Amino acid sequence: MGVMKYKARTPGRRWGTVSAFDEITRTKPEKSLTRALRKTGGRNNNGRKTISARGGGHKRQYRIIDFRYAKKGLSGVIEAIEYDPNRSARIALIRYEDGEKIYIIAPMGVKAGDTVQCGSGAKIETGNSMPLRDVPLGSEVYCIELDPGRGAKIARSAGNSAMLDAKDGKNIHLRMPSGEVRLVREDCYATIGKVGNPDHENISLGKAGRSRHLGRRPKTRAVAKNPVDHPMGGGEGKSSGGRHPVTPWGKITKGLKTRKKNKASNSKIVKRRRRK
After folding, report:
1. Which fold has domain 23-39+59-201+265-271?
2. Quick one: pLDDT at residue 258?
């Protein structure tokens, strides 16, 4: 793992950096574990735009990842570490004892040929998956379930992990990547270690074309628009909006707490993020 810098042969390449891809051992995905990925253009099932500046991008195939820990009680061998265009982390192709192949999020420090286990009796080693009750305190884990059997939801992106702070009856105090401390049931599954490819955050795109390949279209500033298009538009000269930053629908967009006060999972939060 590492970051390479382009030679400054053009202005666009001057500041661009790219991953070294040292850990990648296979370039083509397992065909049986891929499916077509349809573009949405930031629109929902009603055809309404819910995310702006989305569209285009390079054609991709979606890699089916086993987030639900389907191979409990079995061990497997890592056949390859692969690049996944749909996420910042690398993925590992595992062949299990029964001959089935699956993809998992590759943790930091594993390589092709290593053995991984999934289940309650698994060893405390990087890449092995088990219920949180079997994980020692102070361990780093990733791909964590919030509800048993519903699949991994937490700490799935490059370089992320959560830490076990304490065990309280049938609940685990889990310190999230954001700093939030949350109660999670002890029978939720997680994987030992930390998500690989931590240098992803150090990559500089360097030019607009690389953003377009990722499906990110140009986004116009609100204050540069006309009043008919945005509440902060219009004004004489380069006006700064004259009001608190808002969305196109007039709702405050910086600093406003949008979490519901009576949300069911509020009781599971022991300590809020960013709270001293």
Report:
1. SH3 type barrels. (2.30.30)
2. 85
